[in-house]
């Protein structure tokens, strides 16, 4: 009797595996702390890090991994939706990258907290990164504070070279054209501009920012990327760290305006790029719409606190970073913000679900699930 069940069990196992199987061969993640899964912990000189409690309190074994979150971030949840356990590992954790590329290779995360579209963003501790162009160099032995988007793409080009060597040109091109490239960046550039005494007007600054972003995207396209999922800048004026600058505790509207304009401009840039690269497909997540939609009406999403950070100190828990002695909220699931800048695991999950299956108001011209399956 019992043996009759075996084929059925196997059938179910097959179905589950097929359902859980990623519909993209690999995921490559680029960007800032919203997507960093440990890059900065591998930069000895970096000050932009989260590899200490209470960060990671909801990660398995309450392990602080370098994610700026109580648990997983949006890159993790997007990867989960594609059938992964969580985000692929940080590039810097791969050491000699030849061996991981041979085993069941599923992608790499290059994102670095504090980084931006502009090389100078986040790099107050600037030193040369000269070893980078040599594939056999020790990547963790540099002194950078953060890894800029340009440097992340440079690191990807090293991977590209290995893929070419291992797979050959045709297979590598096919593999990369089906892989998903996720990019979440721009907030730190806008913070940098806003809190500096730059002589550039808003329009001048954002134009040059988007021009630079477009050039980075072109580099990725020239390195074989064809499915690009972009998350625009959230309403960063609503971060607890910025609300403390508004006497009424409201959002800093000017910063949110910058984020809106950035989205509109990057939307045009992507439209332009897709006429230049005919086989390119993209999704642009509107992080302003997605986030304000929750802030303005939090209860249906099970959030009760959308202003204060869960972990921190002082007004809105936003006068200190989330350190081991910071005060921690009781119900982390009810908070939109984990620390003074970053979303909680619950908020990141909601963001990923919206990017994956959301309507055009939140993600356009197609959502991430459509991007992955085309
Ligand atoms: C986006 O995602 C789902 C699939 O996950 C798809 O069925 C749906 O049509 C898309 N939503 C919209 C509104 O485009
Ligand atoms: C790489 O650099 C780190 C930090 O300087 C060092 O601890 C490690 O041993 C180096 N690894 C190799 C393979 O040289
Ligand atoms: C501060 O918040 C209020 C809403 O509470 C808003 O009307 C106002 O524009 C904000 N001030 C600034 C400087 O952004
Ligand atoms: C935590 O401790 C550090 C160093 O001991 C101190 O500088 C910081 O102000 C403390 N933070 C809080 C939130 O108490």
TrEMBL record:
Pfam short name (any one): Lipase_GDSL
GO molecular function ontology, one term from the record: hydrolase activity, acting on ester bonds
Transmembrane domains' residue ranges: none
Keywords per UniProt: Hydrolase, Lipid degradation, Lipid metabolism, Signal
Biological process according to GO: lipid catabolic process
Keyword Heme: no
Family indicated by similarity: Belongs to the 'GDSL' lipolytic enzyme family.
Protein name, as recorded: GDSL esterase/lipase
